[in-house]
Amino acid sequence: MKIKAKLKNGVVKVKALAKHQMSTYNMMEKKTGNREDANFITHISATVNGETVFDASTSQFLSKNPIFKFAFQGIGAKGDKLVMTWVDRKGNTKSGKSKIK
Amino acid sequence: MQRRQFLNLTLGALALAVVPASVQAQDYRKSKPAVWHAHTVDDAMKNLYGTSTFIKSGVKVKAPDVASNGGAIPVDFSADMPIKSIAVLQDANPEAAVCVYEATKYSVNKYSVKIKMAKSGTITIVALGQDGKVYGATKTLDVALGGCEG
Predict the structure, then answer these.
(1) Which domains does chain A have, with CATH numbers?
(2) Chain B contact for A93, CB < 8 A?
């Protein structure tokens, strides 16, 4: 997971790329004949100092290796760690972190 | 014995302190499973917010008029008022829901994400305001090459 977080004028802007195939049911039906092979990120969240700043439930229609951009304010100073975690349909989970610049 | 009681008390207090944070984050796939199986934008909205109509103001959506690659269409969306959650829906794919974002008290409600669309269609952004009203905006675009067939 690639994350960039930048603090400017009190607002932290975040750009994150989650590496994931994001295969849809239709794609997998064509490829393997089994719709249940579909796998995609179902939930992704971001926290700073233990507080949730971003929380998304997602479906198979995000692009492959989806990029999320969001912003938050009122929390997070330069040097604080932003931690992002995703869970996919098969239950795999991965997290990444980045310092706020 | 006393030490054990003390430990139990602190653990209990810790558990209580942790609860609000986990309540705040909502997994819409678990709490509203019907949204993700809805085939039309109207159905998805009804399952998500209980209505299929929205006020056409306060929410902005930006996407290209013609997307050359349906596999990665950049969509920018934002809400001007305080909101509880905001959702991206479209009518080009087998199911309507793309994602639902839960707004936190820290959120600046300006987002961008890349989505897939199988054919030309309309993207609908709907947001539930903190006043309980549903706001939204739509954007119709042409997709030159569908993104869902792989």
Answers:
(1) 2-99 (2.60.40.10)
(2) no
Average pLDDT of the segment spanning A18-27: 86
Using a CB-CB cut-off of 8 Å, the residues of chain A touching B47 are none
Stretch A86-90: mean pLDDT, rounded?
87
**ipTM field:** 0.86
Percentage of chain B exceeding pLDDT 90: 6
The beta-carbon neighbor of A42 closest among B29, B112, B116 is B29
Which domains does chain B show, CATH number per domain? 26-143 (2.60.40.2470)
CB atoms within 10 A of CB B60: 14
The pLDDT of residue B65 is above 60: yes
